[in-house]
Amino acid sequence: MMLKEKVALVTGAGRGGKGIGRAICLKLASCGAKICIVDYNEEDARKVAEEVAAGGGEAFALQGSVADAGTAEGWVSAVVEKWGRLDILVNNAGITRDNLMLRMSEKEWDMVLDTNLKGVFNCSKAALKQMARQRSGKIISMASVMGIMGNAGQANYSASKAGVIALTKTIAKEYGKRGITANAVAPGFIQTVMTEEISEEAKKKAAEMIPLQTLGTPENVADTVLFLASPMSDYLTGVVIPVDGGMAM
After folding, report:
1. DSSP, res 167
2. What is the DSSP string of 120-134?
3. Where are the extended beta strands (E) located within the chain?
4. 202 or 139: which carries more pLDDT confidence?
5. Alpha carbon distance 209, 213 (integer Å)
6. Is 33:6 a contact under the CB 8 Å cutoff?
């Protein structure tokens, strides 16, 4: 119970019951954390909260878009009102709108940047106000190996995730003196709802690019988030941990 009495807010935590956010919530709750589960889809968020409760944990669900700064502030206020503090923020919400550069519309670019990068800014800023008062806190943001390597057809997604990495390092430098750490996780090909849309042939080719020769699972990512959320990572800040089977190596 390394996270007993700790309070966490996880964004993008619904995702049809198969997402990374859901796995993170269940993992943190299993180690004692109280969880505020946020998703654009209220029903998905509520289902994950019910799963946490069924496992003996404590959770509640909220709905809204990370792209709206006022909404993010409202989530943090609700958490503090209920539990008195906020110890862990996991910026997990993210979307894709893939296209080649010359075919990518301004709307496709803006949608991805608003959710994946502006959303991290909004939620982190809201959380930092409370964490700075506490003089403690951990911010964990979901980047991607595509933010390290780039990827054809994903200019918007890759740029947003590279931005998350730079933003994470900036938060780490600005708020380390307040006892706040900021780190990022960079998943590779993970078996989620998103990858279910990819053909079996494409999955096979992806696995061949990975030294471990297999796609990862949401639980692989959740284990790394747990490490960063726990006291075991207290002397780490500004780092990016790839969870990719060696793909970006």
Report:
1. H
2. HHHHHHHHHHHHHHH
3. 7-10, 34-39, 59-63, 88-91, 137-142, 180-187, 240-243
4. 139
5. 7
6. yes
Structure tokens at 12: 């993008």
Both structure tokens of 86:
């906020």
Largest CA distance in the chain: 51
Tens digits of residue pLDDT in 78-92: 999 999 999 999 999
Two tokens, residue 6? 């700790």
* pLDDT of 53 over the 90 cut: yes
pLDDT at 198: 75
Amino acid at 9: L
- Residues carrying an active site annotation: 157
Beta carbons within 10 angstroms of residue 41's beta carbon: 13
Q: Running DSSP on this structure, what letter comes out for residue 190?
A: B
Q: Which tokens hold the place of 63?
A: 């709905």
